[in-house]
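hey so i finally got around to running the thing on that chain from the lab meeting. sorry it took forever, my laptop kept dying and i had to restart like 3 times. anyway pasting the input first so we r on the same page abt which one it is
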Amino acid sequence: MTRERIVVLGADAAGMSAAHQALRMAKQVGREIEVIALEKTVHTSYSACGIPYWVSGEVESSDELIARSPERHREMGVDLITGALATGIDRDAGVAHYSHDGVDKSVGYDQLVIATGASPIVPDWALRPNGQLVGGVAPAKTLVDGQQWIDLLVAAAGAESPRRVVVAGGGYIGVEMAEAARARGLEVTLLTRSAVMSSLDVDMSSRVEKQLAEAGVQVVGGAQVVGLEVDHRGWVTSVETVDGDVHRCDLLVLATGVLPATEFAVGAGLETGQWGGLRAQPDGSVASGIWAAGDCCEVRHRLTGDWTFSPLGTHANKQGRIVGTNLITPGSRSFGGVLGTAITRYVHGDTHLEISRTGLSTREAQAAGLRVSSMVTEGRTASGYMTEAAPVAVKVFADPDTRALAGAQIVGGRAAAKRIDTVAAALWSGASIDDLAEADLAYAPPFATVWEIVQLAARRLADSL
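ok and heres what got predicted. didnt touch it at all, straight out
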């Protein structure tokens, strides 16, 4: 009997989660399958989120970021082909086309999983006429990017003259790469088109900007980059913004975001959304015999029901596992959407800044046509007499009519940000602001105040409604 062939495009979080889950499920039900995976790079199953910490020197080797090597995937039963770039899909024939070592090839499939991830946004101003990046300019998306930044920053840190890094983008990667550059002893200017950490409300992002500035990062908001100056070597020397300001630099980090890598899928007639991502059903299907998971997808926001783009390894692994299950036992699992939960930090010298959020911001709620009330509460992460105590500000959001919890944002010191998971769990279960205010949360002086700060924030907002 001919084995069913499953072809997976992409061998990182979503793709390999789907591949191995399908193999596990097939073994459980006694079904014969063959799994072939095509990966355009030579790296598989690695933590892209860990790259800034490798660049900073906190993580010693890229090997520590790799969960499973290509060899390990093959040992576990996946027929993995690296250096294979997906170029097209013939849906009628059930064939995926790809390029490998400069040769056009194809592979037939019974079921196809698209898990091609996302690609960094590279503005035209960052490119030379030949389409290559200007010297000293790079994103921080892949292990290849990470190695390039280590080479650049270590070389710069060893130079006699002061070296300057400009980070274009004030989101999570921008803040993390600013930390990495400062850890390497370089001067850092962070340029952002709106506010730093603009996924937060302005009153919370301003706290982030203030502490970054105090930690030695020059933050310039409202700075839209329009061009670069380069020297005779084609190396960046300065960045120009739309208002005419010029920021001198020796290196430039592109932290301008990512977009779904779905060009070949569009060519096959698969529909994409506002951000160019595939819009899979909750079971992961996008068409007959075709599935999608991970950063190449848009997802439903759990609170609004609207489509959003939320590229994170946590979602990718969950979606991949769901697809892998449904490949073998259709309809048995579904993806429950996202809340926009995210977390990061900036640490340098005496500064320890943590940032997190979940649910809706004021702007997001308004865009969805929802009413929210909010309040900021300041406190400590531990009882004031404990050495662990650090300042923290918590902003909580709730619907003033239904009292439904709508979100939270946290900016504070050590041990502040992970508290966002309390709110995320409450949001996931549909809790009210009163439920959060009355929940049984842990207390001991080294860990919290008697009224845990998240709970105190919820209680204060609940009393005000």
